[in-house]
Amino acid sequence: MLVATLHHSLTLSYSSFDEFAFHLHTNTIGPIITAQKLLQTHIPIGTIVFMSSDSGSSTNFQEMEDGFAAYAASKAALNQMLRVRSPFVSPTHHS
After folding, report:
1. How many other β-carbons are positioned within 10 Å of the β-carbon of residue 59?
2. Which of 19, 39, 45, 68 has the most CB atoms at less than 10 Å from its CB?
3. 19 — phi, psi (to 5°)?
């Protein structure tokens, strides 16, 4: 199980590069690499589940979540990566 992280910052313009990179590594890159490594083991895996957040929604932004810019961006990146990659890891996909 992977657990996401949230460091509160005021807005994206006030987030440091290190804070933004930390969120991307923890909430986007880490889960994707972990899933890739699991799939490479050829262990029979029924389902891999990723936990996202409404903070990462491109259509359901909540005003109260302003200040979570780096976290929201990392979750949006995870959501998009899963949209793009999930058809290619499906058991029914043939290369």
Report:
1. 5
2. 68
3. -65, -45
Give the span between the Cα atoms of 19 and 12, in whole angstroms.
10
Q: Is the pTM of the predicted complex or chain greater than 0.90?
A: no
The pLDDT, as a whole number, for residue 30 is 92
| Spatial distance between the Cα atoms of 24 and 18, rounded to a whole number of angstroms | 10
CA distance 54 to 27: 14
Task: Locate the domains of the chain by residue range.
Answer: 12-88
pLDDT at 15: 62
The Cα 52–Cα 95 span in angstroms is 28
Dihedral angle of Cα 46, 88, 78, 4, to the nearest 10 degrees: 30
Torsion over CA of 81, 83, 85 and 91, rounded to 10 degrees? 150
Structure tokens at 71: 């976290």
Cα 58 to Cα 42: distance, rounded to the nearest angstrom: 34
